[in-house]
Amino acid sequence: MNPIQDFPSHDRKREEHLSKDGKWRSFPRVPHLLQYVSNGNYYGRIKLNGKLIRESLETTVWTTAKLKLADFLKGRMEGRNQTTPPFFREAVELFKRGLESDTSIKPQSKKYRLWCLQRIERSWPELWKLRLDGITVGLHGLGGKAEQGNRQSRNTHSSTAIEGNSLTLEQVRAL
Asked: Which of 24, 44, 81, 139 could form a disulfide with 72 if both were Cys (CB 3.0 to 4.6 A apart)?
């Protein structure tokens, strides 16, 4: 009886985490880390937007690979889900489509909200050319006596149009 055969060997444990073709070793305690068996190089692996990305960490040392893996993941996750924010006019079109399809709002209320949008467009035409992330609270306060009269009207109509459909500026930006 050989006592070495009675206990599972360390090599057998490693073999359990090899890929089907035997070329890649994974590490269950360190997700996203792979090792190419033939040369010992470590790789970072991540799936972004349905695409599998595998990149060399340029090391054969375990501790260095774990450190470089953190940098690899951080760099890849930063660029994830970055899209350009839509223009305000696109958000308005989305608002209008939602307004048309909402059966819980009376027709007169729908007309009023559309009228508010027309008033905003007349008093602040530059707004339609801006992206949502470019709109700030103090942006429309351009000054001048002509603007002073329109400012109160604009604030009332913009809040009515947006709040009337239960949308906040953050929700519109999220579109």
From this structure: 44
Please give the torsion angle defined by the CA atoms of residues 57, 63, 67 and 69, in that order, rounded to the nearest 10 degrees.
40
Whether residues 23 and 41 share a domain: the answer is: yes
Same domain, 24 and 42: yes
Q: What is the pTM of this model?
A: 0.43
Q: DSSP character for 55?
A: E
pLDDT in tens, 49-94: 788 889 999 999 999 999 999 999 988 887 666 677 888 999 999 9
Cβ-in-10-Å burial (0-12, 13-18, 19+) of 153 comes to: middle
pLDDT in tens, 90-101: 999 999 999 999
The count of structural domains within the chain is 2
In DSSP notation, 110-175 reads HHHHHHHHHHHHHH-GGGGGSBGGG--TTTT---SHHHHHHHHHHHHHHHHHHHTTT--HHHHHH-
CA angle 28, 33, 38 (to 5 degrees): 105
Q: Does residue 165 form part of some domain?
A: yes
83 within a domain of the structure (yes/no): no
**Enclosing domain of residue 57:** 3-78
Select from 126, 107, 32 the least CA-distant residue to 72.
32
